[in-house]
Design brief:
Structural class: alpha/beta
Largest sheet: 8 strands, parallel
Strand content: 5-15%
Strand order of the largest sheet: 3-2-1-8-7-6-5-4
Number of helices: 12
Number of strands: 8
Shape: globular
């Protein structure tokens, strides 16, 4: 199955049936497992790191939590309400919440999607805040013949309707930048310039960008300078090796230690989440090595 289909399936919205089934009281009913209160990996911790759930779907959420805690990660990306209690059990956080989006291709750039998206995000934002989290993902959607100007204005119109709620609850709605060359054909927010212009139009500290290093290397390159010039609009980062979206070591073209140093120098206090698809037999060892590489 193509990578974009894998991801679409993996982070498909879990809003329907999940919010109702998840009791907010359950979030506080789990105490951290004493065996996992402290990880066994000593990291510098200058950059907080997480891992994306969908890359390790062969593990249960609980199994991934155990591994993440032992590695020294602060949380797991792309986890919705149903699994938040499990993260809390291990002293981890949902570093980038999901579950309000429709999917990757039907997003804020289409006004026809606004009623459903506004409803979804209006229900999810308070849940994210009540759980103690502060990041919620969103997507532009595909162009389908739309110009960038049309897409920008449509996104602005919709997003500004949820910004008062996001501001009230101090939840950052983060639009992910995805490449349209390889993995997500026709996706509109495929360049940093599009995302930055949208941030300026929405004009809220609670709308930012999820800068995916892998995706932006493919569509525009010039990663470090782009980060330096636009870091104030970025709330979160994702990693993966180019080409292939696999391990981030010497087998690929990006210099991740240098990129992490650049991110650190901007004063970034958020989270960098590992989002590569491990190819080696010991997939957790690949994750450990990636975390170590980014621990500058």
């Amino acid at each position: 199955m193509p990578l974009n289909q894998n991801r679409r399936k993996a982070i498909k919205t879990i809003l329907t049936g999940t919010i109702a089934a998840t009791s907010l009281s359950a979030f506080n009913s789990f105490s951290a497992d004493s065996d996992y209160t402290k990880g066994d990996t000593k990291l510098k911790g200058n950059i907080q790191q997480a891992v994306c759930r969908w890359c390790y779907n062969y593990l249960s959420v609980e199994e991934l939590c155990k591994e993440a805690k032992m590695i020294g990660l602060v949380g797991i990306d792309l986890v919705g309400p149903a699994d938040w209690p499990t993260l809390k059990k291990y002293g981890l956080i949902s570093t980038m919440c999901n579950g309000a989006e429709i999917n990757l291709i039907d997003g804020w750039n289409n006004i026809a999607n606004h009623p459903k998206l506004i409803k979804n995000y209006s229900e999810m934002i308070p849940l994210v805040a009540q759980a103690g989290y502060d990041n919620l993902i969103c997507f532009s959607g595909n162009k389908r013949g739309m110009t960038d100007e049309e897409g920008l204005e449509n996104c602005r119109i919709g997003l500004q309707q949820i910004m008062p709620l996001a501001e009230k609850h101090k939840v950052v709605v983060s639009m992910e930048l995805l490449n349209s060359k390889i993995d997500h054909k026709d996706y509109q927010a495929d360049r940093t310039s599009f995302g930055v212009e949208l941030c300026k139009r929405v004009n809220s500290d609670y709308f930012k960008l999820l800068y995916d290093i892998y995706h932006m290397q493919i569509d525009e390159g010039d990663v470090i300078r782009t980060i330096n010039e636009n870091h104030q609009f970025i709330s979160h980062y994702h990693t993966a090796g180019v080409p292939g979206r696999h391990e981030i070591e010497q087998s690929q073209e990006l210099n991740y230690p240098a990129i992490m140093e650049a991110i650190l120098k901007t004063g970034f206090k958020g989270v960098v989440a590992q989002e590569f698809i491990p190819t080696r037999e010991d997939k957790i060892d690949s994750l450990k090595k990636a975390v170590s590489l980014c621990d500058v």
